[in-house]
Every structure is written in C-alpha cells, then in structure tokens.
Amino acid sequence: MKTRRHFLQSSTAVVALPVLESFGFRRFASAAAPVTPPKRLVFLGFGWGITESSWYPDITTPGPDYTLPDGLKPLERHKADFSVVQGLWNKYSNEGHWGSTMWLTGANRYSQPGQSFHNSVSADQVAAARLGMETRFGSLQLTGDESGDPSGHGPGLSLAWDISGKPLGGQKGPVEAFQRLFSKDTTPIETQRAMLAQKRSVLDTVLENARSLQGGLNRTDKAKLEEYFQGIRDIETRLGKDEQWIGVPQPEAPLDEPKPGMTGREEIKLMYDIMIAAMQTDSTRVLTYRQPVGTLMKSLDLKVHPHDMSHYHSTLGEKLDASQRRDLAQSELLAGFIDKLKSTAEADGSSLFDHVALAYGSNIRTGHELSNCPTILTGRGAGLKLGHNIVAPKDTPLCNAWLSLLHGVGVEVERHGDSSGVLKEILA
Prior knowledge:
By secondary structure, the protein is α/β, with parallel strands linked by helices.
C-alpha cells in the first residue's frame, strides 16, 4: 500500500509502526528534509444566515485596515489569519430555507427537464477524488444531530453531494464521528476479505443484469441507466478502498471517546476537536460539517424559533438579540477551532493551520436573502490572502472561491459549478 505509514506484517496480523524519525517524520542532524505534510480542505456550513448589520465589515473599507464588526469580535486574535469575502453568491439559488443544499455545488435545481430538483457534485467531493487516495477515508461528512432541530439547511444528508448529485450521508454527532474514526474492527481479516468478496460478487451480478437492459432504451432511460452505472462505479471505488485498508489498524484516538447526549454549543466544540483528531491522525484530508443551529440556540437559552430569528427585520427586539447572540457563539467556536489548528503540530514542526484551507459560511445571508453569502476563509494551505476584508466584483459566483480553494490544495480542475474562473481577489 502506498502511504507514508509503515507496517510490520506477520502471517496473522498487521501492526502499525510508530511515527519514526528515520522515515522522515522528524528532522535530525543527518536526515534529509522531512516529509511535507499533506494539504487539507475543510468546509463548515450553517443555516439561517447571520445578522447583516453586525456581521459584515464595512464594504467601503476593503483591505487589511478594516474594523472588525461586533459579530466577529471573538475572532479578533486571529484577525490577521482570516479574510471575510463579500459579494459572492450562487446565482441559481432561489430557496430561502436552504442554507447548504447548493452551497458547495452551485447547481441549478431546475436544470434537468421535467425535474423539480437536481444537484451536482460538491466541492469537497471533487477534492476527495484527489486528496483521498492515500487515506482510510476519502472524505468525512459530519452533521449535527438535527432530529427535531430546524437548522435551515434544506435537502441533503450532509454538506456533501456525489458526482451524480446524490446526497451523501454523514456521522451525526460526536459519538458517531468518533466511532467511525477510531473504533477497532475486531472481525478476523479473512472474514473481512470474504465479506468484501461477497459484496463484489453481488455487484458483478447486478452490473451484468443492468447491462443486459441497455438495448432499445430511449434517451431518458439511457441517462437514468448511466446514472445507475455511476452509482455502481462509486460502490466499486469504496470497496476498493475498504480492501486496501484490510488489516491496517485504526490509529489511537488522541482524545477520549465522547459521552452521548451532548448537543448545541458543546456538541459543535467537540466536533471541532474530532475534526482536528481526524487530520492529526491523517485519517482523512477532506472534511465537511453541517452544523446545527436549533440546538445551539437552545444551549444558549434562546427561546426564539430559529426560523423566526432569521426574520429579525420584521420586529427586531428578541429576534435581533437572538441572531446576534447566535453570531457571537458561532464566532467564539470558530476562534477556538482556529486556536487548535494553530497549536496542533505537524511532524516537520509546522502546524495544521499551515496546511489547511478552511471555508466557513452559508448559502443564506439572512431571512430569504441569498446574495452576498456570508463567507470566511482561513488557513495557509491554499495560498489565500488572509487578514483582509475582500469585496468581490459584482455578480461573482461563490463557486469561483471554491475553484480557487481546489486549485490551492492541488486539485487542478477546469471549473466547478457555475464558476467563471478563479477568484483572484482572494489569492495572496
């Protein structure tokens, strides 16, 4: 297996070696330069937007010398290390309650004739096809436990959508996320191989039967069958990755297993810790987190319904107060996440922050407003201009920013979604 980890193998087991200096993980007098840490891409999405008047910097003071607005004040200590980007939007978005459905895709939901909903591949999955080749998990999709929690995200199971525009599920809450990453599989290796072989056999039979249907189909049915074949190819890819990692033990968790029942503010904080652990152990290099808003508000003892909060313009008062307190809590949590990215050391002495490109935001500005999507970019992993209030040219697609991030982490695709090119304004 081609990875930077090394293993000892006997006839009955595979044991991971510790990270050894001799393999280039630590610099010492007679060694060559250490292995360069990998690039990572992280998307943090939330619903119901933000408080316009106290979240966005003054649009007339672009550049580094802007005044940080009250809603972002908890990020003050990181002001030189993140940029607020204004003026970006997904031009095809027209649903004011969908904070994440099209956020990373930029798709036109009506682009398929006769269909009322269509989506395309999300930016994280474009990255995962390249950055996920050497890790146990090509990508990690995390979500808040949103059962009974209106969080303003819209259709989807996570922030991620596959190449066919189908929703990808994710781990709900810290316990599921931790177990996905660090729970040990005690199934004997030969049994694991037999189970994979059985899955492949079933897949081969299904594929053979599907191919026998190809003749005589009309154009619509052929398109549907091709979509089906793409789904089969996706399953084959996942089986191949599972096969690659048979017998390779999962890493020791750098944090304790979380207790069940954690929600709201503490849930988000712990999910951030788990994301740090996933990157620290190189379990994955592409992560998304669809954050809960309803439970966050409950944990802040806010009685206002999240949807009503997003329409604070109508009555102000407690709705506006709830919106602003929500902003502060989210900014405080983000500041803590950046703290840990900066303090978590890589093998070469740099930090996780030096190799991460992170986007934080929503497809909703506020109420039902979908232009000027709230966007914060941070991390030194993609060559971004940090410490600036950046005002994009009028009608700039949000996907231009995603295309720039993809290029910055080494994924050289020609376009993404409705992008018209890279967003030069965010590049250092």
